[in-house]
Amino acid sequence: MRFTVAQVRTPLAGELRVPPDKSMSHRxxxxxxxxxxxxxxxxxxxxxxxxxTIGAVRALGASVTLAPVADGSLAGTVTxxxxxxxxxxxxxxxxxxxxxxxxxxxxxxAGWPIRVELRGDESLSRRPMGRxxxxxxQMGARxxxxxxxxxxxxxxxxxGLALEYESPIASAQVKSAVLLAxxxxxxRTSVTEPAPSRDHTERxxxxxxxxxxRAEESCRAWVDGPVIPTAAQVDVPADPSSAAFxxxxxxxxxxSKVTLSHVGLNPTRTGFMLVLERMGVDLSIAVDDHxxxxxxxxxxxxxxxxxxATTVTEQEIPALIDEIPVLAVIAAQADGVTRxxxxxxxxxxxxxxxxxxxxxxxxxxxxxxxxxxxxxxxGLAGQPFSPAEGALFDSLGDHRLAMAWAVAGLACxxxxxIDGFEAVEVSYPRFIDDxxxxxxx
Length: 441
Ligand code: S3P
Known about the structure:
Mean pLDDT: 98
Structural class: alpha/beta
Radius of gyration: 21 Å
CATH class of the largest domain: Alpha Beta
Low-confidence stretches: none
Largest sheet: 5 strands, mixed
Number of domains: 2
Number of strands: 24
Bound molecules: shikimate-3-phosphate
Distance between the termini: 17 Å
CATH superfamily of the largest domain: Enolpyruvate transferase domain
Strand content: 25-35%
Helix content: 25-40%
CATH architecture of the largest domain: Alpha-beta prism
Number of helices: 12
């Protein structure tokens, strides 16, 4: 689908509740499927990625009654396989576009003596799996992959070995895969990371009766196995990563004021808010509720002119990794050179996001520079972007690119079009309507 965006000349205004958190939705479904008993879930994201996780756990024997409710989220129950373990599916398990489904599921399956083949779409089939197969093999599982990528068969073991894993990358998917495999192993399994990645697994597992040890100063988390999770009640808040799109839109459209409600405010996810504040955006953030596992609150974003460039350090990257495409858009509107340090991981996301950012910003008339893993964006100090007449962007099948370029379109002197816009189904199916409701188009 092609989506066309023109410069918006009136301020964005209004209140929005963006869709539920994708990372938490995957975990709520997956942990319920692993648990003994019937869990009750509310506020689960209804999107292509989460449907991949739901389809996968069904194929492995969990019974799922999640169905859409009035606000567009999914609510219902999941009855897990518990101590009986997942069943062997008759056919390969389809993970679609979802890296989180694939990598977390590989960790879950590592501890059960069955063989499961995981498949994905073209984008997922290019993404590296060695980062999880390495540690999971040390825990006793075996894998057959296509050169380190999907399709991948997991051959689990009921005699899993505990592991002390020093992860070379700050990745919540790697950390979660190892900890989930650790639930089936005898003894303590720990993961130490070079920087703190999102900690939804550590926060949510205790709801399912699994204690998780943590030494936050050293970015280390551990579980003691074997342990079978027990059913829980989970209510998922709105996704800060989805909130980043209207937040940046309100930051670059003069006069805007947008309220984003019931947003998850887990500090391992809110890095982009700190960056917006540093760049001069007027942001008010109020925690309304400490929730069962995660703080939730309201963000009010008010436009202020003269955005200034900033440096985003490597340590900050994991807390805003998915927001970098849209942060590159605000950087391109700021005054000065914004540096994003240590962003090599962008090359192995749903697309090569580093190259995609460089290409898209160049089409918008913005100068960038990539030096190793550092991206520099020279901002236009509030001048509208100046793409050629009829400029066309390709989402590359990547939801976050589609939405980031749509936000950029709001500040373009001539309309732009984005092809493959249906990619937004992965995390934010109602993006066009939600943005329309605050006056973006
Ligand atoms: C996710 C972790 C991050 C993030 C992804 C979701 C998760 O990936 O980019 O969108 O839910 O655990 P990495 O673990 O590869 O950094």
